[in-house]
Specification:
By secondary structure, the chain is α+β, with helices and mostly antiparallel strands. It has helices at residues 3-22, 43-59, 89-94, 174-181, 197-204, 218-230, 255-265, and strands at residues 33-36, 39-41, 64-67, 79-87, 101-108, 111-119, 124-129, 134-137, 142-145, 157-163, 189-191, 210-215, 234-236, 250-253.
Length: 266
């Protein structure tokens, strides 16, 4: 099966999960299951996850699957599916922004080769395949997207997330980066929406100029990484190493702006 077939499968699966599960239940107050001190999930997370897992297992039974809401499925395959069935549970459940999505990515030998981010409240489905560019499909259009060429750091609008508390990362660590981006030589403003995938997609589309996060899971970033790369972004971890699915941090921007951001982070 080639990447066109993988992409078609991922687009249909993400669209169904987004429209028939997320949006069908949107606006209904969901009961919370707290999975960590600052992290919860809802029944919609679980329903979307179960649907996507079922579809992958039926269609690609030999592949590995890594999902935010379930145990890993490791079949010793060179192909890894990375799934976030509802990225942005907080804005989805609270109704505070339209920054929530279904994310499905496929990596080959740990490198993302295809990714889909479907933001159903926005009516935007972002997708990319390795070497074929990045696109945004809406109800009325399907157009190629590219990152902004803005290279003046003082004019920069960026997404910025601390991420998840781990044994290696404290959420308060984000404060030193906020100090740097809001320095006199820093950016205009930043956005933190409780969702990684939609700000990454908006960076790919040139609506935001950059995105960074310090501690996320691979399924939070895998789809967005290939979409932003194919849209012309340089995508690395926060130290400047090319991003792969083992990296918890991410920085994405056009190459010139990316280097300027790395410089102020030193």
């Amino acid at each position: 099966m080639n990447t066109n077939e993988f992409l078609g499968f991922a687009k249909l699966t993400a669209a169904y999960a987004g429209d028939k599960i997320l949006m069908k239940n949107y606006g209904k107050m969901q009961e919370l299951e707290w999975t960590a001190k600052q992290h919860f999930r809802t029944e919609v997370d679980t329903q979307s996850n179960e649907y996507i897992l079922k579809r992958i297992k039926e269609t690609f039974p030999e592949h590995n699957i890594y999902s935010e809401e379930d145990d890993d499925v490791n079949n010793d395959s060179e192909y890894d599916w990375l799934i976030d069935p509802l990225d942005g549970t907080i804005p989805y459940r609270q109704g505070i922004t339209d920054h929530f999505s279904v994310c499905i990515a496929l990596a080959k030998n740990k490198k993302p080769i295809m990714g889909v981010t479907y933001a159903p409240k926005r009516g935007e489905l972002y997708y990319a395949q390795e070497g074929k560019g990045a696109f945004c499909q809406t109800f009325n259009d399907n157009k190629k997207i590219t990152v902004s060429l803005e290279d003046n750091i003082n004019h920069t609008l960026m997404g910025l997330d601390g991420g998840k508390e781990t044994k290696d990362f404290k959420r308060a660590d984000i404060t030193k980066y906020i100090d740097k981006v809001y320095s006199p030589n820093g950016i205009t403003c930043f956005l933190a929406s409780g969702c990684a995938s939609v700000p990454l997609a908006l960076t790919a589309a040139g609506k935001l100029h950059a995105y960074m996060a310090l501690s996320l899971e691979p399924w939070d970033m895998a789809a967005g990484t290939i979409i932003t790369r194919e849209a012309g972004a340089k995508v690395t971890n926060i130290k400047g190493k090319e991003w792969d699915i083992t990296d918890p941090s991410i920085l994405a921007a056009n190459p010139v702006l990316h280097e300027k951001l790395l410089e102020i982070f030193k």
